[in-house]
Amino acid sequence: MERNTFTTVIGWIAAGLLVSKSVIADSAAADASNLDIELTRLIKAQNISSIYSDKGQSTEKVALGRALFFDKVLSGSGDIACATCHHPNLHSGDDLSLSIGVGGDGLGYERKLGKARPLIPRNAPEIFNRGASQWRTMFWDGRVEIAADGHRISPADEKLPADKLENIVAMQAMFPVTSRHEMRGRKGDLDVSGQPNTLAAIGDTDFEEIWERVMGRVLAIPEYVALFKQAYPELATDELHYAHAANALAAFQTKSFTFEDSPWDRYLRGEQAALPEAAKQGAILFYGSAGCSSCHSGALMTDQKFYNLLVPQIGPGHRDSSGFDIGRARVTDQKKDAFAFRTPPLRNVAITGPWMHNGSYMSLEAVIEHHAKPLEMLQAYDASQLDPSVKKTFRLNTSTILVMSQTFSPEINVVPELNSQETEQLIAFLESLTSPSTQDLSYLVPQTVPSGLPVDR
Q: Which Gene3D superfamilies match (predicted)?
């Protein structure tokens, strides 16, 4: 009798455990379903869609663009290429707070500043998904823009060969070769062979001559003549303009750095299991109470507008702005735009630090905290996190804070302070924006380039 009673009790316990497991499983499933329901509601309300870029680029144009992207022949002294600051092995950036331009040596963390050379005032932005049709601005200050009426705006004004440029990525590619600190060099520089840097001798606003000289040195190389002929068979060599090189650079970047397979993009296409639960909770925060999507909106996750977030002032700034980097105001010449920078896109954001327009933060946690309390974070900024060459450029005093605060963007006030769990969830969502295809892009790096100059790798 006792044995039968014991067996019965054991049976009740086992049955109870099975019921409990079933209830827990049902509860978890219900929680997951509720997350998806709420996230789907937010996605529809804000008209969010997966990113899409037309990767259907001419094979010949992509091949030409690849060669140009890695070839230092485009620079005045032959010592820096587009890839130096936007390298595939460094997630299309350079892993530095502020880039090191002409006269530098090395790649990424190991790159060294040239003697008596300044740092580039801003962080090198990643170049993922720039072929998407929604793009209408380029650079942190938006100095390259396609206006709503189609008018093309750039530092070159009417000198820009707009009729020859295929898209805004090509427009952007026209200007690094004209920048003294980025690629062109300063007057009196010698190139890597000890000869005078002829590009550096040209005036800063003589864009047409700069582009003509760059094309002249490129087309002096027989392999490039052949590559241009394959990419533009309808044009004679003497009809080629640097704009055609820019179009090829744009084709290479669009074809090679476009990725639409992040967990978030898969979720947007209907794969609910692609996104972990923590990332779903983070997405609900992002598109809901955290207010992130008020600026990081749409398929690009940027409204392409400009805001002053009181980001710490580091870097050499600009001589005509008392050593400050006043951002958008350098383009518009309007005080209200001082210290404002474009909202960055967020695809692959977790792998493209340091963050902010000047790489002032080394973690996403710090970036999130700065958005919640910008003035407090500015006042408490710890410059010890910076590389010594950058640290010595940090400026923080009462007058700096007062000047910057005059044009603070009130839009940032929508961001609340988050607790540690909410921050972790938000970061889980930001990590879900990383494409697995970006893990190894070394296949994009060529062994050699037509000029014979060394390839950064």
A: Cytochrome c-like domain
What are the CA-CA distances from residue 198 to residues 255, 339, 399 (Å)?
33, 35, 42
Residue 433 placed within a domain: no
214 and 304 inside one domain:
no
Assess whether 161 and 229 both reside in one domain: yes
Residue 87 corresponds to which tokens in the numbers above?
A: 């390298």
For residue 385, give the nearest of 367, 404, 403 by alpha carbon: 367
Question: CA 88, CA 190: separation in Å to the nearest integer?
Answer: 29
Looking at residue 350, its pLDDT comes to 98
The amino acid at 183: M
Distance CA 175, CA 152 (A): 14
Residue 238's Cβ-side half-sphere holds a number of Cα atoms within 13 Å equal to 0
The residue type found at 89 is N
Q: Which of 90, 31, 69 has the alpha carbon at shortest distance from 250?
A: 69
Per the structure, the complete domain to which residue 326 belongs is given by 291-417
Structural domains counted in the chain: 2
Shared domain for 76 and 166, answered yes or no, is yes
d(CA 89, CA 439): 9
Does the N-terminal peptide bond of residue 354 adopt cis geometry, omega within 30 degrees of 0?
yes
Dist CA 287 CA 264 (whole Å): 13
- Shared domain for 215 and 145, answered yes or no, is yes
Please report, as a single letter, which amino acid is at residue 235. L
pLDDT at residue 31 in the model? 67
Cβ-in-10-Å burial (0-12, 13-18, 19+) of 238 comes to exposed
Interatomic CA distance for residues 198 and 213, integer angstroms: 8
pLDDT tens per residue, range 411-436: 999 899 999 999 999 999 999 999 99
- Chain segment 295-332, per-residue pLDDT in tens: 999 999 999 999 999 999 999 999 888 899 999 999 99
Average pLDDT, the chain: 94
Please name the residues in contact with 37: beta carbons below 8 A apart, sequence gap of 6 or more: none
Checking 36-39 for CB contacts under 8 A at 24+ apart, the result is 36/272, 36/280, 38/284, 39/280, 39/283, 39/284, 39/287
Give this prediction's pTM: 0.93
If DSSP codes are grouped into helix, strand and coil, which group holds residue 182? helix
Contact 194, 277 (CB under 8 A): no
What angle, 0 to 180 degrees and rounded to 10, lies between the N-to-C axes of helices 59-70 and 222-231?
A: 150
Contact 263, 431 (CB under 8 A): no
DSSP-derived secondary structure for 65-91: HHHHHH-GGGSSSS---HHHHSBGGGT
